[in-house]
Design a protein that fits this description.
Helix content: over 70%
Largest sheet: none
Structural class: mainly alpha
Strand content: under 5%
Order of helices and strands: HHHHH
Radius of gyration: 14 Å
Length: about 110
């Protein structure tokens, strides 16, 4: 059985739809768990991908937006599962970039 690591509950809350990211961000602002911070940055990147998918869907091409939205949805589920399993796995290449780009979320 996986032993819980510090910040696991916050990391799981991060992926809760709509307000989970904000709740987790403020919960982690006091404790600064690195595991939770990794998942907070990852979810912020996924949130931005959802926004991009919606913009593409409404302004450029409905099918392309749907495809990007569906892929982002699947990666969101995968990342949520990784938080539950105590892992820092995410989207290949993009999760690493999210960690570099979103340092303001530490």
């Amino acid at each position: 059985m996986n032993t819980p690591i510090p910040g696991k509950k916050i990391a799981i809350i991060t992926y809760a739809p709509f307000v989970g990211f904000l709740i987790a961000f403020f919960m982690n602002s006091e404790s600064h768990y690195t595991f939770a911070a990794w998942h907070i940055k990852n979810m912020f990147g996924l949130f931005l991908l959802f926004i991009v998918a919606l913009i593409i869907q409404s302004q450029i091409d409905i099918l392309a937006g749907d495809i990007i939205w569906f892929i982002t949805f699947l990666t969101w589920l995968f990342c949520w599962l990784m938080a539950i399993l105590n892992r820092k796995n995410g989207i290949p290449y993009l999760s690493e970039k999210f960690q570099e780009w979103f340092t303001f979320l530490d």
